Amino acid sequence: MKKETYQFKYTVYDSIKDLSEEDAWLLAEAREVTENAYAPYSNFHVGAVAKLVNGEIVAGSNQENASFPVGLCAERVLLAAAASLYPKIPIETMAISYRSSVVESDHPISPCGICRQSLQEYEQRVKHPIRLILGGMEGKVYIIEKASMLLPLSFTSEDLQ
Ligand code: THU
């Protein structure tokens, strides 16, 4: 018997002002595209903006539905758009932000479990890590170098072979 440890490092910035110009721009865009969310049920508006390795920018926002499970998170809307518009082009960095009439948007939120699974498979299929910038409308910002670090011991396509 032996114990294994899983850990990963991420960077914490006090505010968007401490980011590089490019990262700050992406996060500002993610804040902006929260405006495109359709979230009448949760009032939790999420925006995601990604820069692909070819320089293209793709955005996504959460799209809810009266039949609640039909709703899609911003991250997966973005991944579907990126894969459709620019097949096989890796995503370099994705910024995620949110606003809400219910909670203060003053700290980073992290992708949900289903989105982590989708992010993991996207990285694997295009063989490139997705760097995440997580931040609210204000407050601290987290940078995670590889999205799949958020999903240890994940179930992947390799398990089906
Ligand atoms: N949501 C996202 O779009 N991304 C996340 O990372 C967390 C949650 C959405 C789903 C739902 O529309 C609303 O936020 C509340 O859960």
Q: What would you say this structure looks like, in words?
A:
The chain has 161 residues and is α+β, with helices and mostly antiparallel strands. It has one domain: 3-Layer(aba) Sandwich (Cytidine Deaminase, domain 2), CATH 3.40.140.10. 24% of the residues lie in helices and 22% in strands. The protein has 3 helices and 6 strands. It has helices at residues 21-33, 74-85, 113-126; strands at 11-13, 44-52, 57-61, 91-100, 131-135, 141-144. A 6-stranded mixed beta sheet has the order 1-6-5-4-2-3. Helix 3 links the parallel strand 4 (91-100) and strand 5. The two termini are 28 Å apart. It binds tetrahydrodeoxyuridine. Residues 39, 42, 44, 46, 62, 64, 71, 73-75, 109, 111-112, 115 line the site of tetrahydrodeoxyuridine.
Topology at a glance:
Blueprint: E1 11-13, H1 21-33, E2 44-52, E3 57-61, H2 74-85, E4 91-100, H3 113-126, E5 131-135, E6 141-144
The chain binds tetrahydrodeoxyuridine.
